[in-house]
Specification:
Elements (H helix, E strand, L loop, with lengths): L1 E6 L14 H5 L10 E4 L3 E3 L5 H7 L9 E3 L26 E3 L5 E6 L5 E6 L5 E4 L19 E4 L5 H9 L8 E4 L10 H9 L2 E2 L6 E3 L12 E6 L5 H9 L6 E4 L8 H13 L5 E4 L3 H6 L5 E4 L1 H11 L5 H25 L4 E6 L10 H18 L4 E6 L2 E6 L1
Parallel strand pairs: 3-4, 8-9, 9-10, 10-11, 13-17, 13-18, 14-15, 14-16, 16-17
Antiparallel strand pairs: 1-2, 1-12, 2-3, 5-6, 6-7, 7-8, 18-19
Length: 400
C-alpha cells in the first residue's frame, strides 16, 4: 500500500495566512505545508483540501482513479470545490466499515473530539490509521491483536493520542508514526524534528510518497536523556514533553512535600496539573531501585534535589564531617547512581539544574554544592545517549 501526503499542515495551512508569529515567518520551502490530505494507492482520498488536484500532479499522481473521498473533520471557511470526476466527499459514521472495489477496507474510528479517524487495510494486508486534527481515539480499553504499520496523527497537538495507541498495542516498535496537521505550535525545521524524534515520530514534506510497512526511517527514542537548565528555563516542561506520548510514565519527584511551605506547594501543584492523568507519581530520593526495576518510562525531577538530600545525609555542610568521610560517602552514592543509570533497561529522562555559570556563591557550603552538582551532572550525562541544555525555553542539543 502506497500513501502520498498531498499536504501535512493544519487545516489553515502553514504558514497561517496573515499570522506574524516566528514559526510562520520561518515556514518556508519544504517547511511550508498545505492542509493535510492523503492519497492512498491512487484510489482513496482522505480529506479533500483546496488545490488537491494540483498537489497530486506535483507529486506525480492523478486523482482520476479515486473511487472514494472521505472527510475526517468539519472544514471551516468557504466550501472546497470538488474537482470534476471525483466522488462527492462524505463522513462515515463511527464504527462503519467500507469495502472498496480496489480491495481496500476502511473502518471509521470514533474520536474523543469532533472528527472521524480512518483505519485502512490495503489489498496487501498492510494497515494504516489516520486521525483528524486535535483528535484522539475514544474507547480503547483492550489490547489489539496487532499494531498498525503506519499511523498519521496530530502528534504535536495531541501527543496523548499516541500514548493511548501505545497503551493498547496499536502502535508498536515498528510502527511508522507520521506527524500531520502541523501548525505553528513548534518552530519548523530542526526543532520540530527533535521534538518528534523524542516521541518516536517524524514529519515529511508535502508531496512525499511512502510505502506502508517500510520501517527504515522510524526514529529511535533515546533510552536515557538528561535535561539541564537554569531556574525557570523550561527544563521540566521539556522533560515532561518528551514522555507525554507514552502511557504509564512513572514521575519521580525528589523534592518531597516540605510541609508548611506554601510557595513550594504551589510549584508542586503546577507540575501535577501539567502531567497527564495516566502518569503515576512517586516521591522518593531512593533512585537506584527505581532505575534497577523493569517498567514504563521514568521521569526524575530532579537530580539537584536528590543531591541536596544526599549531602544532608553525609554531613556535607560540616567541614569536619566532610573531611572525616562525608566526601567519600557522597562519591560512593554518585557512583551507585550513575552505575544504576548505565544498567537501566527502562527509558529514563532526568532533570537537573545548571548552576555553575553564574555568580560564585558567597558561602563555602554554597560553593561545595555548586561543585558537587557540576560533578554529578557530568557523571550522569556520560551515561546518557542524549543531553539537552535549556536556555530561555529553547533546547540546545549537547549530545545525541
Amino acid at each position: 500500500m502506497e500513501v502520498t501526503l498531498l499536504g501535512t499542515g493544519a487545516p489553515a495551512g502553514l504558514p497561517r495566512p496573515d499570522c506574524p508569529c516566528a514559526a510562520c515567518a520561518t515556514a518556508l520551502g519544504p517547511d511550508a505545508r498545505a492542509a493535510t490530505a492523503l492519497l492512498v494507492d491512487g484510489a482513496l482520498l482522505l480529506d479533500l483540501t483546496p488545490g488537491a488536484a494540483f498537489a497530486a500532479a506535483r507529486a506525480g499522481h492523478s486523482l482520476g482513479g479515486v473511487r472514494q473521498v472521505l472527510l475526517s473533520h468539519p472544514h471551516d471557511g468557504p466550501p472546497v470545490e470538488v474537482p470534476a470526476g471525483l466522488p462527492q466527499p462524505v463522513r462515515v459514521p463511527d464504527g462503519r466499515e467500507l469495502t472498496l472495489l480496489t480491495g481496500h477496507r476502511v473502518r471509521a474510528v470514533a474520536m474523543d473530539a469532533g472528527g472521524t479517524g480512518y483505519a485502512v487495510t490495503g489489498p496487501d494486508g498492510r494497515r494504516l490509521l489516520y486521525l483528524p486534527p486535535g483528535g484522539a481515539p475514544a474507547g480503547l480499553e483492550t489490547a489489539t491483536a496487532e499494531s498498525y504499520d503506519m499511523v498519521l496523527a496530530d502528534v504535536v497537538g495531541r501527543p496523548d493520542a499516541l500514548a493511548r495507541l501505545r497503551a493498547v498495542g496499536s502502535v508498536g516498535p515498528t510502527t511508522d508514526v507520521l506527524a500531520v496537521h502541523l501548525d505553528h505550535d513548534v518552530p519548523p525545521g530542526g526543532e520540530l524534528r527533535r521534538r518528534l524524534a523524542a516521541a518516536g515520530a517524524r514529519a515529511v514534506p508535502d508531496g512525499t510518497t511512502l510505502v506502508v510497512g517500510a520501517y527504515e526511517d522510524v526514529p529511535d527514542v533515546p533510552r536515557r536523556t538528561l535535561v539541564l537548565g537554569g531556574a525557570r528555563s523550561g527544563k521540566s516542561v521539556e522533560a515532561e514533553r518528551r514522555l507525554e506520548s507514552f502511557p504509564d510514565v512513572l514521575y519521580v519527584a525528589t523534592g518531597g512535600t516540605r510541609g508548611g511551605d506554601t510557595e513550594w506547594a504551589v510549584r508542586v501543584a503546577a507540575h501535577r496539573e501539567r502531567r497527564p492523568g495516566s502518569w503515576r507519581t512517586s516521591e522518593t530520593t531512593d533512585l537506584v531501585p527505581v532505575l534497577a526495576a523493569d517498567g514504563p518510562p521514568v521521569l526524575i525531577d530532579c537530580l539537584s534535589l536528590w543531591l541536596t538530600d544526599v549531602m544532608d545525609e553525609v554531613g556535607a555542610w560540616d567541614d569536619a564531617e566532610w573531611a572525616g568521610g562525608g566526601e567519600k560517602a557522597l562519591r560512593e552514592r554518585v557512583r551507585e547512581l550513575t552505575e544504576a543509570v548505565r544498567c537501566a533497561r527502562r527509558t529514563v529522562v532526568a532533570v537537573s539544574n545548571e548552576v555553575g555559570s553564574g555568580i560564585v556563591p558567597a558561602t563555602a557550603s554554597g560553593r561545595r554544592y555548586r561543585d558537587e552538582l557540576g560533578r554529578l551532572n557530568t557523571a550522569f550525562a556520560a551515561e546518557c545517549e542524549q543531553v539537552l541544555l535549556i536556555v530561555a525555553g529553547q533546547a540546545m542539543v549537547l549530545r545525541g
